[in-house]
Amino acid sequence: MAILQSPAGKKTAWTLVDIFVIVYALFPVLWILSLSLKSSETLADKSFFPTDISFEHYETIFSADVSLFIRPLINSIGISVIATLIAVVLGTMAAYAIARLEFPGKRALVGVSLLIAMFPQISLISPLFEMERALGLFDTWPGLILPFVTFALPLAIYTLSAFFREIPWELEKAAKMDGATPGQAFRKVIAPLAAPGVFTTAILVFIFCWNDFLFAISLTSTENARTVPAALAFFTGASQFETPTGSLSAAAVIITIPIIVFVLFFQRRIVAGLTSGAVKG
Amino acid sequence: MAEIVLDKVTKRYPDGALAVSEVSIEIADGEFIILVGPSGCGKSTTLNMVAGLEDITSGELRIDGERMNEKAPKDRDIAMVFQSYALYPHMTVRENMAFPLRLAKVDEATINQKVNEAAEILDLTAHLDRKPANLSGGQRQRVAMGRAIVRNPKAFLMDEPLSNLDAKLRVQMRTSVSKLQKQLGTTTLYVTHDQTEAMTLGDRVVVLRGGHVQQIGSPQYLYDNPANLFVAGFIGSPAMNFFPGQIAEGSVRSPLGTVPLPDRLKQAVQSGSGQRDVIVGIRPEHFEDASLMDDASRERGGLITVKVDVLESMGSDAYAHFTVDQGTSIDSAELAELAADSGRTDTGSDTGFTARLSAATRAKAGESIELWFDTDKLQLFDPSSGKNLVEV
Q1: Is Membrane given among the entry's keywords (chain B) (predicted)?
Q2: Residue B58: domain span
């Protein structure tokens, strides 16, 4: 074990561990990527690296009927973005109130939101299905946005209130003394400082909405509101005896891209230690 | 520029706790007022009520004759410097200082001019484009001051602005705060728990204890004429020595010996007939090594021989710590609170007394020495009420 004590040995050990974790996590993703790039003939050739790179599956899913993939992709993006926006805005206000204010029923509010987060979603599907059909929300965007927001809000409130508690309250008092209205103090001082928390929360909520399969498959029936995870289940091969492995892989790769873009875009905003220097501590 | 009047201002929290009780202070235009007291005495609460950050339960706050109780902080036109500075970390120094002006919708040219002026005064010009995180403690403190002075408010409120600085910087900043206040001539209300800051900065000092005003006056007046045991023990460093004693027939008997009452005190205690218990207070600086005194001066005071436990030489003078057999001990809530605040109860040596002798003294630890004390400077307090027997 002596080698692990030396700095160089330690570094090597950590590098090995890191590589292991990365390979472990990314191997399935790479496999899907590899599958999606193989031509139909070589799909089952059992080699990890495609022998000849072909984009035929990508062409297939984009050139096929719009309702197969493109329309669900638009649904996914639209529904997830709107649900994220609503959840983050509502969550920010709720979290701020929970972190800063004393009001009757505060504990109840926190408890109920935790309860919602813990509630098994599958048990709500039947009642939700009936309710949405009665209300005319079934198979519409709002019909999905509503449950997404409901189940994402507890997550948003919890993450955000932790961030708000980190912000020194004196900054708000200082803003008030400097002549700010409560609204100005929130917008110009508190919100910019809470931004890293807001972006973190936005990423988490977006991923939750984007990946959801349960609500998407149960509360939609046509391409009207069906999102990609649900749409993938309706992929068929060229004939009914063929598994659409290539197309599924290509679609899986495509729907991973927005998540990566979203995370990369907001990651730069998540600057740790933004509040350092505000107060002596 | 404004005069601030607190008229029986009271703060009672919803749980019934009384934080500030009927505090009345009249602050003249341009005056530098210090609120001082141990932690929990209500000084910060008082300041927050003036700022508008806390509601006033009863009483009235007037700025320039106008009732302010219901006004939001932004409508009171007063600036505040916080103990933690509370700088906006996402803004540069320039933006921090410009923030109050931006909110007041001042035009850009004026903002620039005012920020530059303030930066000039506070020696911050070189740091205007840096973020607070990259500044030292003293620089952050100056930015906090800068943010207060840019908009020329009616008054400054300062909540222990120097307590986060190290000792040396604190002394420097104390001088600059004082200079700045004189230069700007802005009414200032300054909260501190440090009696040295209170003594050196203020035009007048307000001593608070448990939400009640103990005494208001100039630092020198408080030092010479403390209204009660609490003020006497709080003001002055090292703190005043207290002995149990009795007065009878024009003289006072205490562990210091029996000395005739000075004329100043004679009239004050005449009312009581016969013997009466008192607490005798004398400041360390009113002792002196008797061997260093000429005979004429020795006549004017009392003499006592004590054994020196510890001698601390400060260079300019020497602190001799001694104990005397005082018979009964003093039982006073006020002194107990002071002792608790200074941590003296933890050390278990609350019977020690201190004399401040000139550096030439030949006193040594463990040896006896004859001390002279100035009987003119004795303070007598009523043991039950804690009040000074001389009406002030």
Answers
A1: yes
A2: 4-233
As a whole number of angstroms, the distance between CA A193 and CA A75 comes to 33
Task: Say yes or no for a CB contact (<8 Å) between B134 and A277.
Answer: yes
Query: Are residue B169 and residue B268 in the same domain, yes or no?
Result: no
> Domain for residue B391, yes or no?
no
Instruction: Report residue B135 as tokens.
Output: 């500044």
Residue B306 CA: distances (Å) to CA of A171, B283, B309, B310, B325: 55, 16, 9, 12, 10
The upper half-sphere exposure of residue A248, i.e. CA atoms within 13 Å in the direction of its Cβ, equals: 16
Q: In sequence order, what are the residues at sequence separation of 6 or more whose Cβ sits closer than 8 angstroms to the Cβ of residue A144?
A: A79, A83, A215, A216, A219, A220, A225, A227
Rounded CA gap, A168 and B304, in Å? 56
Residues 200-229 of A with CB under 8 A from B: none
Q: Indicate the residue of A173, A180, A193 with minimum beta-carbon distance to B89.
A: A193
Burial of B293 by CB count in 10 Å (0-12 exposed, 13-18 middle, 19+ buried)?
A: middle
Tens-place pLDDT, residues A95-153: 988 988 888 888 898 888 888 888 888 988 999 999 999 999 999 999 999 999 999 99
Q: Please state whether beta strands B368-373 and B302-313 pair in parallel, antiparallel, or not at all (unpaired).
A: antiparallel
Domains of chain A and any CATH numbers: 74-222+252-267 (1.10.3720.10)
Q: Which of B217, B233, B249 corresponds to the end of one domain?
A: B233
Query: For residue range B341-381, what is the model confidence (pLDDT) as tens digits?
Result: 766 555 444 557 899 999 888 888 888 899 999 888 889 89
CA–CA distance, B203 with B178 (Å, rounded to integer): 10
Q: Please give the ipTM for the structure prediction.
A: 0.81
Looking at the fold, whether B366 and B317 belong to one and the same domain comes out as yes
Give the closest of A170, A181, A192 to B84, CB-based: A170
> What CATH number does residue B165 fall under?
3.40.50.300
- Count of domains for chain B: 2
Query: Same domain for B181 and B253?
Result: no
| Spatial separation of the C-alpha atoms in residues B218 and B203, rounded to whole Å | 6
Give the global pTM.
0.78
